[in-house]
Amino acid sequence: MSYGLALDVDRIRREALQTMSAGPATSGHGLDTERVVSVLNDVVATEVVGWLRYTRHAISAQGADRSAVRALFDRHADQEMRHAVAVAERINQLGAQPNFDPATLAQRAHTDYSAPDDGELRGMLEQNLLAARIVVSTYQEVADWIGDRDPATRQLIESLLADEQENAEALAELLAA
User: Fold this and answer.
1) Three-state DSSP class for 62?
2) What span, in angstroms and rounded, lies between the C-alpha atoms of 161 and 136?
3) Helices (H), 61-150
4) Where would one find the signal peptide in this protein (predicted)?
5) Identity of the highest mean pLDDT range in 10-24, 71-85, 104-118, 119-133
6) Is the confidence at residue 133, as pLDDT, over 80?
């Protein structure tokens, strides 16, 4: 069976030339770009606050299982920062500026920055699991809201979502042990 593909490259070229001044080639179709950027800046804030929380927990963790939990927190912290940078790059691709303003990070984040006073591992694991579950739910809603109108942004959010789901599972396993 033959599946033919006939591309009209001349037509595609003409259409591309007509859209040269219309903004980024990867912008969403039918989405308010300002609203998308605002939502993505909240995701940046969420990831930076997550990085801060995981880093603080890795440094201050106490207890018998400290080394294993610290390694997990360090991995999750690294991942959170990579997520923040990836989302910031997407914001830039959309023709806007990422917002890393420390004065507003905590207010814009979907999760909070918290650390048990005593450095107790169980409390840290519980706080991070709660945060991961919140992030999974909010990122799922963001991906659903974007829908098919901005495939590049949706794919990015879904990749973050997959990582956050894995993080939640790892934290839940440690709590169950």
Assistant:
1) strand
2) 6
3) 66-93, 105-108, 121-146
4) none
5) 71-85
6) yes
Q: Could you give the C-alpha distances from 152 to 28, 39, 84, 145, 161, in angstroms and in order?
A: 8, 15, 16, 13, 14
| Strand partners of residue 120 | 62
What would the mean pLDDT of 64-84 be, rounded to a whole number? 92
Cα of 172 vs its chain's centroid, Å: 20
| Residues written for the chain | 177
Residue 89 has pLDDT above 90, yes or no: yes
Distance CA 156, CA 139 (A): 10
Q: Hey, is 120 helix, strand or coil?
A: strand
Q: Residue ranges of the domains in the chain?
A: 31-176
d(CA 45, CA 70): 23
Virtual CA dihedral for 147, 145, 35, 85, nearest 10 degrees? Answer: -80
Q: What is the mean pLDDT of residues 122-149?
A: 94
If we measure between CA atoms, which residue out of 165, 72, 163 comes closest to residue 125? 72
pLDDT value for 9: 67
Indicate the CATH number for domain 31-176: 1.20.1260.10
